[in-house]
Amino acid sequence: xxGHILIVEDNPVDRLRLEKLLxxxxxxxxTAVNGTQALVEVRRSRPDAILxxxxxxxxxxxxxxxxxxxxxxxxxxxxxxxxxxxxKADKAWxxxxxxxxxxxxxxxxxxLLLQVHALH
Length: 120
What we know:
Elements: E1 4-8, H1 12-24, E2 28-32, H2 35-45, E3 49-52, H3 61-70, E4 79-83, H4 88-97, E5 101-104, H5 109-118
Helix pairs in contact: 2-3
């Protein structure tokens, strides 16, 4: 077992791809479809890392990352933003909020797994 990852992704196709990729790599995972659900799921499943989409309904990935970093109980959980947002400002903003990585969609399986493995 490589660890437990929370996948936060509102697009069902992208979410299924991440589930398949992580499962085949030996990770267990939980899922959420927006930032609000992610904050609840983090407390329930205590993931080792979070793959966080940015553009989602209710609460986006930037706001969810900010909330996780503001809470002493969840601050230490590394967040990798997985997003179509590829502007330097988006990457810088994610880092300022505490994200430990940034993967731009579309991404390769290798790209994603390298970032996840690097967290250990």
